Amino acid sequence: MEITKYNAVFKKELYGIYTRIAFGQRGKSGTEAMNRLWDILKKNQVQHKGINHWVYIRDDVMFVGVELISTDNVHSELEKCELQFSSFLYYRHVGPYYYLPSIHQEFEKKIKEEYNKVKYPIIEIFGPWQEDESKLETDLIYPV
Q: Which residues have CB under 8 Å from 102's CB, separation 6+?
């Protein structure tokens, strides 16, 4: 696992849904929230950049969202999540999503060895959908 440290500002303004993580089931909770979000986006013809972001606020709360093309008329069902930190660790996972829990465990082990603790929020940015799961790309971002 090759982790890169960036001493640069990471900043995002996302719109979506906050949700509780049920019994540590990040994938299930995130997928259910993402499905609700996409229903809202489609139903209301909200213009967005099409890239899904999952933000783990803490162990039991996450945010799923997208970047909007325009924030002039944000739909009332969408909540805002602003992210900004001055340095972060980055890793790109290429492969099936079901490997993400073990990838996070390995990433967090390395962070604890170097920095003593993992900070929140933790961010997953999902690349464009691929039918071939071995080509799926997910960017992992941890603040330091």
A: none
Burial of 78 (0-12, 13-18, 19+ CB in 10 A): buried
**pLDDT digits 0-9 by tens, 62-90:** 999 999 999 888 888 999 999 999 999 99
Give the count of alpha carbons within 13 A of 140, CB side only.
21
Q: What is the CATH number of the domain that holds 22?
A: 3.20.80.10
Domain count, the chain: 1
Confidence of residue 14 (pLDDT cuts 50, 70, 90): very high
- Using CA atoms, how far apart are residues 11 and 53, in angstroms rounded to an integer? 13
Range of the domain at 78: 4-143
